[in-house]
Design brief:
Elements: H1 3-19, H2 22-29, H3 36-55, H4 73-76, H5 84-92, H6 99-108, H7 121-133, H8 137-148, H9 154-166
């Protein structure tokens, strides 16, 4: 059996255990149309749910489901992360013009960012932003300031157009 299938099965079991309480599994096992083996499996799930609910600190005493905290988008380097300021700075920097520019900038800051053949510029930008987010505050501020040096803005673009038309 493939690892992916195993993980899928285990994931589904954990979802069941998180969604139902022990009495629910017991009631299902007592349904008249349930085979003996399935009844045994449901009773085992009831025992597991009961033991999990007793030992799970995220469950309230009345056994209602309490949501566990998940990884924040910032920890995952997601573009909608709280660290969007860093990602936005990366996107506005002149280094964002190429994947190589992002890698070279990371190297200049002492960060290790490697570009894989199928990595998009956006993916590299997110990975670079995540690396910068992990830096100490002073270094992080310095990295963001360096990113914003020489950035192209809409105003700068209009200034360039005006200058080129006057020549």
């Amino acid at each position: 059996m493939a690892k992916l299938q195993i993980h899928g099965i285990l994931s589904d079991l954990h979802k069941l255990l998180a969604s139902y309480r022990a009495p629910d599994f017991v009631a299902a096992s007592e349904h008249p149309g349930v085979s003996p083996r399935l009844r045994e499996a449901l009773q085992a799930l009831a025992r597991e749910a009961d033991s999990e609910q007793r030992t799970d600190p995220t469950r309230s005493p009345n056994r209602e489901r309490v949501l566990r905290p998940r990884n924040s988008h910032a920890e995952l380097g997601h573009p909608k992360a709280g660290g969007g300021n860093v990602l936005e700075a990366v996107r506005q920097s002149p280094h964002y013009e190429s994947s190589r520019g992002l890698v070279m900038y990371a190297r200049s800051m002492g960060l290790r960012l490697e570009a894989n053949p199928k990595d998009s510029r956006e993916r590299l930008a997110r990975r670079l932003a995540a690396l910068i987010e992990k830096m100490p505050a002073e270094k992080k501020d310095e990295a963001v300031a360096n990113l914003l040096l020489g950035r192209s803005t809409q105003t700068q673009g209009w200034i360039d157009v005006i200058k080129s038309s006057n020549q």
